[in-house]
Each structure stands twice: as C-alpha cells, then as structure tokens.
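Task: fold both queries, return tokens.
Query 1:
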Amino acid sequence: MRRVYLVGLAFFLLRGPAVADTPATTQWVLATAKATGRGGEEFVSSLRIVNPLAQTANVDLTYLAQSPIDATFLASGDNGAAPKVRVTVGPGETLAIEDVLGTTFAGLAAPFGISAGGIRVDSDQPVSVLSRTFVANARSAGGVPGTFGFSIPAQGPEQTVSAGETAWLTYVSSSPSASSGFRTNLILLNTATAVTVATVALVRGDGTPAAPARDYTLGRASAAQQTDVGAAFGVPGSETNLRIVVTVKSGGPLAIGASLIDNAISSIAYLPPAKVDEPGDGAYGWVVTQGDAALASAGRLDIFHGVPNFLSGLLVVDCSAGSFLQTVLAYGVDSGVTPNTAFTPLAGGGWSFAGSSPESGAWSGTILPWVDGSLYGSVTFTTLATARCPSVTKGYELAGSRAFGFGGTP
C-alpha cells in the first residue's frame, strides 16, 4: 500500500546539489602516473588529502591500474579485488603523499609496463583530495631545472556519469605534427565493479561530427587512456575547438577527464568534465515560486524507475469566501494504489500530467528537469464547488530538489 506523507514542510527538503570541491567519503582520483611520456617527460603524481573536521580520518586508498585499450576499444583490466592502503589524517591536517605510485603503491601492477591509473579514496570522515601530475625533469628556457604539470581534483559520485547520462569535455585539440600544436588524451575510469560500455563521440565547435563515434568497454574498476584522441579517431588536420562527448550505455558510473598537451614544450593542462544531471529516483520537495501562494503552497514529488509516480501538494486557493488549503494527491501507475493521474513523457525531456479525484478536483501541469538535477514546472488546479465556494481554477509555478533517493541511491 502506498504511504501518504505530510507535505506542509516540504520547503525544508529543498537543497542544492553538492559543489565540486565538497569533502566526501567516497571519491576517485582520475589519473596518476610514474611513467615516461612520448617526448621523454618523466611524469610523477602526488596527493594532498585534507581533513577539515575535528575527528581523525581513516582513509583507504585503492590503486586502479591502467589497462591498454585493444583494437576493439576494450580495456579489460580487472581491479575489482585491488588491495587497499590505509593512511590517517589528523583533525584539521593535510596529508602530503609525494610520488604516490612510487611510494605508497611501489611494486604494484603495471599491466603494459607503465605505472599509471586511478585511485579510489574511501574515508570514514569526509575529506578533500587534490592530485598533481607533473614533469619532474622539466627545464626552463635557460636550462634551469623545474617542474610543470596540472592538478586534478578528486571526483565524487555526483560528478561521475551514470548509465543513460552524457558528459562532455571541451578545449579538446588535435594536431598531425608531433612537434607543434596540441594533443589530447582522454582519461576513463570505471568506478563500478561491473563492466561498463560508453559511446565516445568527437564533435567540432558547430556540433558536427569530426569522426564516427565508437564504443569503449572497461572491465571492473578499470582505468584507461585513449592517447592522442584526434589521431586515434582519424582527424586529419589541426583542430583547437573539438569536444569529446561520452554517453554511458550500460554499467557505470564512469569518471572522465582529459589532458591537453602542448606538443612543442610538453606543457599540460587538465580538462574537467561537464554534464547535465538527470533527475534520479527519489523524493523531491517542491514549493510554489510565484505569487502570494508561495508562502504556504508546497508538496512532494516521487520519481521511481525514472518516471514520476506520485505528486502531493497543499495549495492555497482563493475564492469569494476567502483563502483555503486544498489537497492534491496524484497517483501514477507505479504508485501502489489505483492510479488517478497519467504522467506522460515530453519529447524535450520531463513530463506532462493530468488527473482528478472525486474528493479534491482536477489537476494538470508539467514537470521539467533543470541542468543540476532539480525540477521546475507548473500545476493548474480546479477545485470542486462547495457551499462556501464555487469551482475555481488556479495556476501555480513550482520548483524543487531531491531530498533523498530510493533503493540505496544517494
């Protein structure tokens, strides 16, 4: 039987998504290395782990060794049983781990002669993690020893790409010359202990394909890099405004990023991913956002198996006798009770809905996704005629965010 929930305090449930650098208990460092590059660059990676809290953080680090990509675009490495190394970070402290693959993970797997891969970070207290990969044998124009490189912040679950989601990387560049222009390496990290398949497309600034898309398959917790993406996809000339688009077909979530390398001087920059978050399964609190009714009108929306199945609300409705609270209880086909509302997918995303109840009246409207996984839309409500008030039709604008997930989703 479907449970009915109080909705009058639904505005308490509204909250924005986590920002990119929020400390977390589970996250992934996309790429680390202790290896020699194409131009003789000696790449080394270091970590900084920050504990902002008053309790000691016990942090488990798991090295996810990088696997080669074969001719069928399969990276078959299996890191599902990779060993963990525990470190502790005291209250308010920052732990520095220099040359993390050469020290903390010395002697571990290098599947094709290169020590490189991702690192999973699990902690009993939220921590923030930043990696730096740099060229240790760099020289200035005057021959002075130094380093140059880039930093990669760890990615939390909300930044990874789940099945059905799409993310992209911009400023992707390509050059047919090994000594001029830029090359881009695509970095893929399967965060799941199941095989993941993702479609990778390379498009130009005007949105047209630069080359045919292809599917990449990654083994359990497998890490991989498609080096020199432009050359690998057969782009013939120099391009500096390409975009990599990654869609996870099955498995996942997948963490992605890219490195942009200047072919002439080997300087490198990190290209972070961007994506549009789709509303996930869970309970969403919503409030009316316009008009006097915004002070009191609120509700709850449930999404289950990717489709709304329940919408409830307390709506302030005015009539000649005054203002009254009216109740909407809209049940969809997967709600556990007899449906009274149809939720219909819209071509551009989101849903329309329409339904009625002999106890309340009739309702219709739209539920639309926003880019951060929140929702907005509208509802039009027609009340029943009573001795105090004639039938009234009123429209409302609404917006809401997910309060909690279903079935173990965050």
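Query 1 returned. Query 2:
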Amino acid sequence: MSIKKAAPSIFGLLALYLILAPSPIDPVALNFPKLELADNEKLGKIEVLFPVVCQGCEDISFDGLGHLYAGHRDGTLKKFPLNGGSRLTEVLKFKGRPLGLEVMGDSMAWVAVEHEGLAKVDLRQGTYEIVVNSFNDTTFMLIDYLDVAGSGNVYFTDASDAYGDDDLQYDILQGRPNGALYRYLPATGETERLVDHLHFANGVVVDANEAYVLVAETGAFRIKKHWMAGPKAGSTEIFIEGLPGWPDGISRGSDGLVYVTLISPRTSMHDFILPRPWTRRLVTKLPKSFLPKPVKENRILALDETGTIVHDWMNKTPDFSSISSIERVGDYLYFGTLDEAGIGRIQVPE
C-alpha cells in the first residue's frame, strides 16, 4: 500500500486515539484578564557571568560581602565572586535541585530543595538539614521559592501538591489551584499554611515589617497579597492581575520596588485553550515533546506598593532568557535562569 493510500487510515487511527485515550489531566475552564501593555525594547543585551560553571541556576542570593550564591541544576550550591570570572566555591550538594534561595550573611542560608524540602544550610561547615517537607497529610511535591523576614520566619511556596518538576506542564495545563503559601517559624519549628488553592505558587516577597507577603501565581498571570497584620490580617487580595506573561521570581529591590520576572510571554494559543478544557485534554494525550514550551522573550516589571507598574522592560529576541529570578543591587539587575547557562547581569535601564 502506498503512503498516499495509507494516510487516511493513519490519520483515522490517530483521531480515534485522541478521542478514546484517557488524558493524564482533568482540566477546568479558566478565564483570566489581560493587561494591554505595549511592546518595547528597553531591556538591552544581558551580560552573562559564570557561563561555564553555572547551568540552570534558578535562584540567586547575595551575602553582602561581595559574593553571589546560586543553586546549580545538578544539586550543587555554589559561591561566586561578584567581580566575575569563573572562580567558585562548591559549598555542598543536595540530593534534589536547589530552587528558592536566601543567604543570611556568610554563616547560613535557606534553600527550597526539590524532592527534599526546606533546607537550613550551614555555609561554614558545608552541611544542611531538612526542617520540613510536608504539612499535615500533604507532602511538598515542588517546594519552589522563599523569602526570609527580619524576624527570621521563612515564607515559601509549594508550587503544586499534585505534580512534581517533571510534570509541571501538566499542572499548568490542568489549571487547578494545587499550590500553597507556607510560613516556617524557626523559633518553634512549626509550619503554617497561609494561603491555599493557588495556581502554581511561585515567587515570594515578604514586607519588611511582616505586615503582608506577596506570592506569584504563575498559572493565573497574577500576584496575590496576603495580610498578616492590621485590619485585613488573615485576608488575601489581588496585588496585580492580567500580566502579559508567566510571573516567576519576585523580589524587593534596593530602591523599594517589587521586581517581577515574566519567564515567558502569554500567547494567543494559551489564551485560546484556557477556557476550552477539551483542547488541553487532547494535547496531553500526545508525547511530552508536543506540549507547549516557554517562548524565548524577556520581560521585567517593577511595581510600587499599590501594584502599579513603574517600569516595564522587555527584549523580544534575547540571547539569555528563561529568567526565573531577579535581584537589584545598586544600579544593576542580576538574573537567575531556569535552564540556560550562567547568571545574567545588566545595568538598570533608564
């Protein structure tokens, strides 16, 4: 039989498979607003530091003594001199991939370690202990990001309690709020769940006075604000919504603004499939290589205390992309990346 004659049978079998085969997800219809922000090219070329020795260094942190720390995708926590070059110190190696990271001077750090939990690290001894890896009957599937308050309390997210890192696309495509925001209290060893039912909980920023905490909902294109003090204590509200991309890392800059990385733009295809669960069921029946992938485009937002956009910088054709974390130090922005090589650095755009 010729290929031409066989084609209808092949396509018929494929159609039958897509109709009858079970989907690995049970999606729900979603509708999220979208801000109409004009494109721009204000984010210039990013300098790449440590490209040979830092691969997939998702989050970064500084010790205030001239060193930058980052977690390598192979599980290694590394320490670099801020003046560049390839010199480094390997502090220790985790069993899982280090994601969220906060260094506290030169003595200790907190790290969200995939497959392990929240780790307290002794930087001088090169050792660590997992202080918590579950809450009640929920094991953290993808402990993701964290921030540390002045009190020492650690705020962290579990992106999903249904899917791990290998299946995170399923979590996004399913569209169910499987994530949560937690607080760990080192003084007592207790863990509290502050906000539940988040759409892929990601970046975290806690207010200097611990009056509130901000948490990025990657799957909902928004950032939420949870109050811990004052008349709104215990309540959660939207800080900003309708973002033109997937919010990942958020941080407080040295200028007081909240910086947000949009790891990939929001595409018309995704806006089409969001309210149509059947389209997402179909696509997840195909091999994972067919699932939607992040688009290489950089966009950084800076927000004030009201959630108003103060700065909007983007680059539609970057060499260094997949920006997953951001830190402003003086006149420079530093970037971690989900899957590329090195640490990004650029002077703050005008």
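Both queries returned. Flag for query 2: The longest helix spans residues 3-20.
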